[in-house]
Amino acid sequence: MMSTMLMSRKSKAIAAWCGVLFLVLCIHFYISYNGIEIFSGARELYGTRYRDPAPYDRDTQIKTIKRPPLPPLNPGHIRKQLYTPPPKEEKKQRFPQTLVIGTGKCGTRALLDYLGMHPYVACATREVHFFDKDENFKRGLNWYKAQMPRSYSNQMTIEKSPSYVEHPRTPLVARKINKDMRILWVVKDPVVRLMSVMALHYSNLGEKYREPFLQRVNGTITIKKDYYPLWRGEYVLHLRRWLKYFPLAQIHVLDGTDLVKDPVTEIQEVESFLELPPLLGPQNFYYNVSKGFYCMVPFSATSPQCLGSSKGRKHPVLNATVKTLLYDFFRPYNEQFFKLLGKRFNWEPKD
Ligand SMILES: Nc1ncnc2c1ncn2[C@@H]1O[C@H](COP(=O)(O)OS(=O)(=O)O)[C@@H](OP(=O)(O)O)[C@H]1O
């Protein structure tokens, strides 16, 4: 009798353990399966399994985007206290809901740091390069999330890596992570951008300035079309690719030169695009005459904070012929870009 009772207790314990093991295995397979689903993005990109979303139709796509609403705020509330975390909530790391995708040397750091002053925003301070660097991409989504700042659920997590815009994997996988992702893209007159690259290049190498974007063909100087920094400035090519995955209504493009000249207007437009409470204003910017740039005045700071000395380098001065060659080269790309974007920037040579 005793031994039968012991046996039945033992088999119940074994059954319970089997149940727990089964549950753990189910959870494990569920997580792995979803991981594989997301990571198959890389394979799908080069294989045949991935099908592009429905063709982009600008008129029907421009509509309000769904996003979890921010808690209601009234002006009195804003004046008294800029930010209130949701009650009984712990901060945690979250995937970004907004990406600053590029373009390098157009003002991506300024945009991110300006946004970082917003109390409803949590920015990853360093560039994560998850989508564009194979070694990071292989580390997986959990690694990506672990690079994000801790935030409350009513804050928006933002990450910037300036070469996301050109890497074909970025829009594809970003859409899989969150199809409502907001995209911020700073561009600049591509000739000015090229000069910024040249300034960086020569300050790093300590070399005498050359013009690697030019070549001599049969005694004639022409543009070396396959020079990589030129391709980065052919924005329309990149926009076309992004529009296969995200509607234009989810992509906000701003001119980095406007961001330098009038950060208040630009950042307020970004606030409105991201549907953030309108909190940033002239009180958050201070013009530093010796630097020739605006510096930030975060709500909690007592003195302005400027970007580092790697920003605002002196650009090489182009001679008139090379300038004309470059502007003629970029003009057709710029025109197609403005048409697709439905917005123009003043990117003609200035004296
Ligand atoms: N407030 C403020 N302070 C300093 N610099 C400013 C600011 N706003 C925009 N910029 C411009 O940002 C340019 C560098 O762009 P990025 O931050 O995108 O460069 S990077 O790709 O991350 O290296 C940098 O380009 P260069 O002038 O060629 O250095 C600046 O023109």
Automatic annotation (TrEMBL):
Gene3D superfamilies named among the record's database cross-references: P-loop containing nucleotide triphosphate hydrolases
Pfam family, one: Sulfotransfer_1
Entry keywords, A to Z: Disulfide bond, Glycoprotein, Transferase
Residues reported in the UniProt entry to bind 3'-phosphoadenylyl sulfate: 105-109, 196, 294, 311-315
Active-site residues annotated for this sequence: 105 (for sulfotransferase activity)
PANTHER family: GH20068P, HEPARAN SULFATE SULFOTRANSFERASE
GO molecular function, one term: [heparan sulfate]-glucosamine 3-sulfotransferase activity
Species name: Plakobranchus ocellatus
Protein name as annotated: Sulfotransferase
Organism superkingdom: Eukaryota
Domain Sulfotransferase: 96-295
Covalent S-S links between cysteines: 295-306
